[in-house]
Amino acid sequence: MSAAAGLGWATRATRETVSGLPREFWWLWTSTLVNRLGGFVATFMALYLTMERGYSASYAGLVAALHGLGGVVSSLGAGVMTDRFGRRPTMLAAQLSTAVSVAVLGFMVHPVAIAAVAFLVGMASNASRPAVQAMIADIVPAKDRVRAFSLNYWAINLGFAVSSAGAGFVAEYSYLAGFVGEAAMTLICAVVVFLKVPESRPQKAAAARSAAGVPSDDGVRLTTVLRDGRFMGVVGLSFVIALIFQQGYVGLPVAMGADGFSSSDFGTAIAVNGVLIVVLQIPVTRFIRSRDPRRLLIASSLLAGYGFGLTAFAGSVGLYALTICVWTVAEIINAPVQNGLVVQLSPAHGRGRYQGMYTLSWSAAALVAPLMSGVVIDHFGAGWLWGTCALLGTAAAFGYWLLMRDLPTGAEDGAEVAAESIAAPRATDAPAAPPAVEQAG
């Protein structure tokens, strides 16, 4: 293929991937990109606490755990707010709270104050995710949702890749500037949402249920979500998959350090993850959008598990990077497809609560993964950790096969209604609301 032909193919592929999505989605996508471009705290908190403030690695780990715990706490509450008060108010409240708490964190000195504010930052920064995901589902037609979630995921990783490099230079100048910069970017994100992103909560669903005498907000409670066996199965499998992927950031650097590699070696290897996502997300999205989601989720689970499993045989930076390539492909496939499945199983009037429960699975994995990797590596060795990842990936693949054997595959609105009836045990006999025409992580 000539260079001109290759460029023409890439141009057509990009056009087909990005065309046809609502204008509101692109404003939401822009806010996601801006938000991730300002990322600083999650990337440099450990270095800030140990190098700038002089605290121990154990204290830095405690603060990171409290930051993650804040995300766990806010997941379900933000989901309820998303359904009850709307997607847009929840996003604005979360973004404004994040901006204030991040700026305050930069000025904290006392260890108790730092830990407390880090917990609040974790709560605030995680609270927008259910609202964003629910809004994407609201404003994007069913047939385009996997593509939309994939593009949103691409924006997250593009922003992260750029911000990680830029924030490194900022940190050399002033860590405080990094905190203030993230606060400013989050405020810009809130302004974009306020000016350009309208509320998308399905109103017809609320009106229909109100006319039928259903309780005031939407008829879906957290207990409804917990009783939804198929959806909670997806949440459980999501936790397993997230537990595997988290090892790339908690288990892998420890294992490479134990093998005598430096932090720069780890940085070089893990950079492959971000580069591949930015380069491959759009062409892979084009490839998977008409594929069977069952097979995609099973294949991505196996790739994730055995990609990490192969790490047991890595002995050089190049081989570590090669294993990262394998599980990065799994990540690229799994993220948008699994998001699409969550939407398919969520009733339109309860998307916030369903997305909140789904977000909780990733937040819980972020808490458990460091403990898991530390215990396994300390007591059995890194090889056992990578073998465990392979077993978890296999179990997740089998779980997806079981859960999705009789799930309708259509992406049309009629299939969405059918999925709604599967997903949510109704609290009343009120008729199901019509699906809405269909959000930064």
Q: Could you explain how this protein is built, in words?
A:
The two termini are 38 Å apart. Helix 4 crosses helix 7 (128-139), helix 4 runs antiparallel to helix 17 and helix 15 packs antiparallel against helix 18. Helix content is 78%, strand content 0%. The chain is globular. The chain folds into 2 domains: 22-201, Up-down Bundle (Growth Hormone, Chain: A), CATH 1.20.1250; 216-427, Growth Hormone, Chain: A (Up-down Bundle). Mean pLDDT is 81; it is low at 212-216 and 410-441. The chain is an all-alpha fold and 441 residues long. The longest helix is centred in the middle third of the chain and has 29 residues, at 145-173.
Q: Care to give the gist of this entry?
A:
With 441 residues, this protein is mainly alpha-helical. 78% of the residues lie in helices and 0% in strands.
Question: Tags for this entry?
Answer:
441 residues, mainly alpha, Growth Hormone, Chain: A, 78% helix
Walk me through the topology.
Blueprint: H1 3-18, H2 23-37, H3 41-52, H4 57-84, H5 87-105, H6 111-126, H7 128-139, H8 145-173, H9 175-196, H10 203-211, H11 222-227, H12 229-246, H13 251-258, H14 263-288, H15 293-309, H16 317-344, H17 351-379, H18 382-403, H19 413-423
Number of domains as seen in the coordinates = 2
CATH class of the largest domain: Mainly Alpha
The oligomerization state is: single chain
Mean pLDDT score:
81
Distance between the termini: 38 Å
Radius of gyration over C-alpha positions, nearest whole angstrom: 21 Å
How many DSSP H or I helices?
A: 19
State which percent range the strand residues make up. Answer: under 5%
